[in-house]
């Protein structure tokens, strides 16, 4: 091993006897007798002397002086080392030159090697895109420590963003479920929002200009304009009754048991009978004839029944028939004629509507069965409900308005009593089965919306046929309830 003048040592293989001889022969050096003894293998191979710690300056030795490789050595310093840790041969120590360090140079401040620039050798980076400033900035990049809580803050910020996205998604889903989202099938996403006017209508009469640009200038404002909606007159609107007054809770009835109701009815009848008996005793009323029946014939007419039982029985049956006819005649007198009966039902419906107006919107998938359409139509007329039954190929919409009792009865009819999945063959079909019955297993009635109204939107009950959504919306728009159709279309019936 020799020095090359730069502080590095060159290696010469000296391992083994042959390598040691070749080195000495090539360089022209003579062998030291002290080393020859170890190389020839003289002495005991089974026992080795205790060697002192290795000291190159005191007693330099080569690798050939350390014995065979099979011998185990406990001395850590005496073990053979490889690579840059290989010892210098004693014969080459005189040839090695010790590098001299200039006095003006401080080895502690000297850089061991130039900085490594990874961008200069990266084959995947275009070297033309890298400016000198970037290279310079990369060279003077230093070690920076993260502030405490930096990544915790970043994580909190990311979680906040994710939570905001989740809230936005839930809001859109809630709007879609409520039907507030724009329905693309109806073209609601194409609606254009109107911009606010330059001047509101309530300010137009006070401003000389068509904008609010000079509103701070008092000379551009008119206070005594006769056309303006505000004046020195005070309007006193007429007083109206509150809607809640019709729904004021009345006196709650007392609920009695069956035994209590029977006792009260018995006491009432006894009191009436006692009053009637008192009037008969005073001679105010004639005593009633005996009420003879076949069951009490012998107890009431004892002597007459014994003398002529046949005549007595005939007389008793005639009296029974007379009492029955009189009872039926009184019932007929109390019964109302058809006109009075209709008037009474109408008064009941009017009284029910005075308590409040209610409405219910139904969606029916199909009214192909004529019996279903007949029940929907006739019951609405009998209950004096106003509204509309709107049929279309897509679905059917039923809107009814009326009193609470009528709405409740009609709701029970449509949601419980009518079997919407049943169908009948067409009216003109033959008995042999020429008419095909369509499947209505998908048919059902769903309540879209129900609530209370300040006034009715319809004047009468009608059944209308439409062919498209636009036509149905235009029909309902005449009554200001076109939103019912959009709500029914967006309703999830599955």
Automatic annotation (TrEMBL):
InterPro entries: Pre-mRNA_splic_Prp3_dom, Prp3, Prp3_C. It comes from the Eukaryota. Residues 153-182 form a coiled coil. It is found in: Nucleus. Residues 56-69 have a biased composition (Polar residues). Keywords: Coiled coil, mRNA processing, mRNA splicing, Nucleus. Residues 361-488 form the Small nuclear ribonucleoprotein Prp3 C-terminal domain. Residues 1-85 are annotated as: Disordered. One of its GO terms (cellular component) is U4/U6 x U5 tri-snRNP complex. One of its GO terms (biological process) is mRNA splicing, via spliceosome. Residues 123-336 form the Pre-mRNA-splicing factor domain. Residues 42-51, 70-80 have a biased composition (Basic and acidic residues). This is Piso0_001008 protein. It comes from Pichia sorbitophila (strain ATCC MYA-4447 / BCRC 22081 / CBS 7064 / NBRC 10061 / NRRL Y-12695) (Hybrid yeast). The gene is Piso0_001008.
